[in-house]
Design brief:
This protein is an alpha/beta fold. Helix content is about 30%, strand content about 25%. Helix 15 packs across helix 16.
């Protein structure tokens, strides 16, 4: 099967972000994007790269492609903003030998990666004798955190009846099939005829021809176009996509290497408030009980904190017995009603804790990847309060008003915390407050919360523990920030889905479904 990759676009969004290399050569996990894609196809597939003449003349594109895939033919086309259909058709006009009329081919965009079984795909198209096939994914995928739309298909038992760009068909696109950007055609003759038909008759989007829309001509002529499902898809088409992937890749690289702190404890007490409503999940399970990595969420959150001699969980009465059974060595405080905020929950939970000893307070809905040596070194500075922060978390850019942010000076001392309001125009680059705190003593935490209540400092009508940090700064206490190496958020359905996807991907877990397509 011939593998044809149109990659003649200018990559303007990457240029605007300051990238020097053309988009296909942008490195992810130390390899160019196009090299990742080439690793997904068999070595005996003939390859054609279609590049714009400017990239071939003025950048290292040709040399890089020759190194990545020595067997490939490289075809030059003029610099034009007419889309991949035009690029492929132009290449065929000037170099007709790159695709014979009877050759089948897979025409693929250049700005993504996938996990799939190409041999299974070859067997599929041979068995079905379909005229075309779209490589598709379904279910939740991380790019769905953003509102960007892709190409979606309608189908009946795997036979495509319609396809459209930049819009899905229903209110829930996770239940639809989306194109990954790879398109199969049974013959070069079809490609020549239907690509030209699209360019002549449309539809074009902003003057550009998309390969997905070529199939409308085939469908109109009642040809057989199929869905072929792939389990994993990585969208790298924009700088945001690349930054999102890089965050998770770096986080899981640290995550799989880290086995947190030794048996020696350096903080004696842990307080974990988990008595909120958790209403965003709409689940019969209480949020702390939702499975994460095969265990209850709160238990995993506890495992990725420093080991302590006493753990106190503050829970709602309705699931107190579950927590007591699952964590018999822990102290469980149950509340009959939802409080006026996390800070109040902490006050109630701390009543029987040792007042003059340090404690960590941490939410139940996140895990952390830490450098334990840096943590120990920070404790040796004898701080009064430590707030854990994280940079580059993708959702900070997408829903910036959902988080609190930390401003620090050159000594890593905290100047202030902004709750539910970004502190700059680029919240992703700022320190996000993750919801884990250290206090030098329980007594200090209680005093700060009491002051918070007396001054009625509320956010969205609730008392947040985040807000006591500013009170500690006003007292001129030693308030430091500890930057984590990874923040694994499970606090909303989107963030949990995002984590589960990347956890499965980086651990090599299967996502294939049973079925014919």
């Amino acid at each position: 099967m011939k593998f044809i990759v149109p990659m003649s676009g200018q990559g303007s969004r990457f240029i605007e972000k300051g990238y020097v290399d053309p988009k296909p050569l942008v490195k992810i996990d130390n390899l160019p994007i196009i090299e990742h894609l080439m690793k997904t196809i068999p070595e005996d597939w003939p390859v054609v790269f279609i590049c714009n003449e400017e990239h071939l003349e003025k950048t290292s594109m040709r040399e890089s492609l020759e190194k990545i895939c020595p067997r490939a033919e490289i075809v030059s086309v003029p610099v034009m903003k007419k889309g991949p259909v035009w690029a492929v058709y132009e290449a065929l006009l000037t170099n007709p030998n790159i695709l014979g009329d009877d050759e089948n081919c897979l025409i693929s965009y250049c700005d993504y990666n996938m996990c799939w079984d190409p041999i299974r795909f070859e067997n599929f198209v041979n068995r079905t004798q379909c005229d075309g096939a779209v490589l598709c994914y379904t279910g939740f995928h991380p790019e769905y955190i953003r509102p960007t739309m892709y190409a979606y298909v309608k189908h009946i038992r795997g036979k495509i009846s319609d396809i459209q760009e930049k819009a899905c068909y229903t209110d829930d696109r996770t239940k639809e099939y989306a194109s990954c950007g790879a398109y199969y055609f049974k013959s070069g003759k079809q490609v020549r005829y239907y690509f030209n038909k699209l360019l002549q008759e449309g539809p074009l989007l902003n003057g550009e021809g998309y390969v997905s829309l070529v199939y409308r001509g085939l469908l109109k002529d009642q040809l057989d176009i199929r869905v072929f499902e792939i389990p994993y898809f990585m969208q790298w088409g924009t700088p945001h996509d690349v930054e999102d992937y890089n965050y998770w890749s770096k986080t899981f690289e640290s995550f799989v290497k880290s086995k947190f702190f030794s048996e020696d404890t350096n903080v004696p007490q842990l307080l974990m408030p988990m008595a909120g409503k958790g209403s965003r999940f709409g689940s019969k399970l209480q949020k702390p009980m939702i499975p994460v990595m095969g265990k209850e969420m709160y238990k995993v959150a506890t495992e990725y904190l420093p080991k302590t001699t006493q753990v106190t969980y503050v829970v709602r009465e309705e699931f107190r017995d579950k927590v007591m059974k699952l964590s018999p060595q822990s102290h469980v405080v149950s509340l009959d009603e939802v409080t006026e905020g996390q800070a109040i929950t902490c006050m109630l939970g701390a009543k029987n804790m040792k007042k003059n000893e340090p404690l960590i307070v941490s939410s139940c809905d996140h895990g952390l990847v830490w450098n334990s040596q840096k943590w120990t070194s920070l404790l040796e500075e004898d701080p009064d309060v430590i707030v854990v922060g994280q940079r580059n978390y993708p959702l900070a850019e997408i829903t910036p008003n959902s988080f609190a942010y930390i401003s620090t000076n050159e000594e890593n001392e905290i100047d202030f915390v902004s709750v539910k309001k970004p502190i700059s125009d680029s919240p992703r680059s700022d320190l996000l407050l993750v919801g884990t705190f250290y206090f030098k003593s329980v007594k200090l935490m209680e005093e700060l919360i009491q002051e918070l209540v007396e001054k009625s400092i509320r956010v969205n009508n609730e008392f947040y523990l985040d807000s006591v940090v500013n009170l500690a700064v006003e007292r001129k206490l030693k308030v430091k920030c500890f930057e984590a190496e990874g923040y694994l958020c499970w606090g909303t359905p989107d963030s949990l889905n995002e984590f589960n996807y990347w956890y499965s991907y980086f651990n090599g877990l299967s996502r294939y479904r049973d079925g014919e397509y």
